[in-house]
Amino acid sequence: MTSHATSGRRAQRGFAGLTAACLAVGLLAVGAARPARAQIGFDEGSISGANQAQVWVADSSEAASYLNLFDLQYAKGPWLVAARLEFDEEARTDAEHFQGIARRWIEYRGEDATLRAGTFYATFGRGLLLRAEEDEAVRIDRNIDGAHGALRWRNLDGQAFLGRPRNDDTHERDDLLAGAEFGVRLRPQLRIGAGYVRMDAALEEGETSEGEEGALELGSPAEELFGGSVQFSHGIMEAVVEGAKRYVHGERDPRSGWIGVSGLDGRAIYGSLSLGVPGYTLLIEAKDYEKFDAPYSTLPPVNEAGQPINNGVDERGFGATLTASPRAEVTIEATGSYAEAPEADDPGERSAVQGSVRRDWWGRGALELGGEWTEEVELESHAYRRFYGPEIEASYYVSSSSSLSLHGKVQSWINEIRGGTRDEYTEITSDLTFALDPYRSAVLAIIHATEAIDEYEGDDTWISLQLAWSFGYDHDLKVKLGEERGGIVCSGGICHYEPPFSGVRIEFTSRF
Predict the structure, then answer these.
(1) How many H-runs (helices) and E-runs (strands) does the chain carry?
(2) What span, in angstroms and rounded, lies between the C-alpha atoms of 254 and 324?
(3) More reliable by pLDDT, 263 or 171
(4) Phi then psi for 6, rounded to 5 degrees?
(5) Where does 309-401 show beta strands of DSSP type E?
(6) Within 10 A of 18 (CB to CB), how many other CB atoms are there?
(7) Angle made by CA atoms 397, 369, 432, in degrees to the nearest 5
(8) DSSP string of 162-184?
(9) 57 - beta bridge partners?
(10) Tell me, what DSSP letter sits at residue 455?
(11) Average pLDDT along the chain
(12) In degrees to the nearest 10, what's the CA dihedral of 285, 287, 292, 295?
């Protein structure tokens, strides 16, 4: 007798196959015509759009989940009107679902000024005070709903905003943010700037303005950030120093709402020095962060991994990256970083070194040899973690339009979970990519560990195959089958946990 779980899996696999087949057949018909990119003229303006659909069909009894994004915009002269309709039923990652208009805005773009009402993104400096952005690599969308304006006149520039940011987990907009940034270029090589951001205390659904004694008055700031920066460039050198101070006036209590607090004020200092001459570049960075885990700012991580070691609560460290190309066909890269959190509740540190040498054979291919070594002590959920080993990347041009590429690395791991087990194993990672032409490609990925890893529920092997088609310039289809290990994914100081997945993922993007 077939169980309900088994029949559910078969039904979902059948659904995945049917969906993939329908998309493939439809797009092959569309792709055969190879239409040009379309823009519909309308009263001297133009309307354009795009639709992106993603479907996950898990290899289990769970229901399929999907995410569909439809973007539409109309442009005429200096004016732009746009909106995004979102259908989010991605049950594998989100506890909350969303269906409705996720973005909408009207924007005026002049020579020296830009004004926008609706959904917007903004970044102050290197992100110490504010970073509202979208990053698909870590699956975040930190947009703000309100008003934003930017002005540039002679040697002056500035921007100001007022709005409610989107919470990535719930899609709600509870907080109220306001801020401004101003800069002046005293000389062509020297610019100084200053900025301010505040977050007001706001009511959650069902709350009243009557709080207990000591509660913050609604409309008063729960948090304020002040900052300044200096940027100097001359010849081959560019130097940047940015600092910020954080004042925390209150925090939300589950029973009393916003209450006054003290002792949570923090600071952040970041600096970088870059030197560049033809064929050679050097970047040196340093950081000193204390109690600066502000919810809508993003501190530069100062390491190649793009990962903070303590989310700004307590971090000190430095990093350096060197790129050298003594000959046109040879590229040498080396990077190293060190950071520590000596005053945190759980002091920890992270050291990392990477290096590679790449040699291009014009018209035939390229070969890159390198290696990395990373050690982490008392970071996140790990008491100790170390991994190191060689890395290789080879590309061969089969013809003028097709290529074969192999990326692989072998790492020796020590992985000790805090209060748990200690795993020691060797991990082999390999990605083989075959591009038949600019429109069709296939990627076979394999990760294999010599021991079952407790952190990944005792699994030791993950295999996946991804097929990609582009039909003209307007339609893209990706189908991925197999297993994704998941784990922490970081980019520019923002990290996201990607859950493991086994099944079929289909992604279809169409533009007009």
Answers:
(1) 1, 33
(2) 55
(3) 263
(4) -65, -45
(5) 314-327, 330-341, 348-361, 365-379, 382-397
(6) 10
(7) 45
(8) EEEEPPTTT-----EEEEEEEEE
(9) 504
(10) G
(11) 85
(12) 20
Strands 45-58, 382-397: pairing kind:
unpaired
The one-letter amino acid code at 66 reads Y
Q: How many CB atoms lie within 10 A of CB 164?
A: 17
Q: Is the pTM of this model over 0.85?
A: no
Which residue has 């930017």 as its token pair? 150
pLDDT, tens only, 335-373: 999 999 887 666 789 999 999 999 998 779 999 999 999
pLDDT at residue 346, rounded to an integer: 65
Domain residue ranges of the chain, discontinuous segments joined by +:
1-99+500-512, 100-499
Torsional sign, CA 7, 13, 14, 15: positive
Residue 456 has pLDDT above 70, yes or no: yes
Distances (CA, A) of 165 to 44, 120, 170, 220, 494: 34, 9, 11, 17, 16
Sign for the pseudo-dihedral over CA of 338, 344, 348, 354: negative
CA–CA separation, 225 and 241 (whole Å): 17
CB contact at 8 A, 393 and 409 = no
**Is residue 258 a contact partner of residue 216, using CB atoms and an 8 Å limit?**
yes
Task: State residue 344's pLDDT score.
Answer: 62
Strands 113-120 and 122-124: unpaired
CA 308 from centroid of its chain's CA atoms:
13
C-alpha of 214 from chain center: 38
- Mean pLDDT on 204-213: 48
pLDDT at 166: 85
CA distance 112 to 116: 14
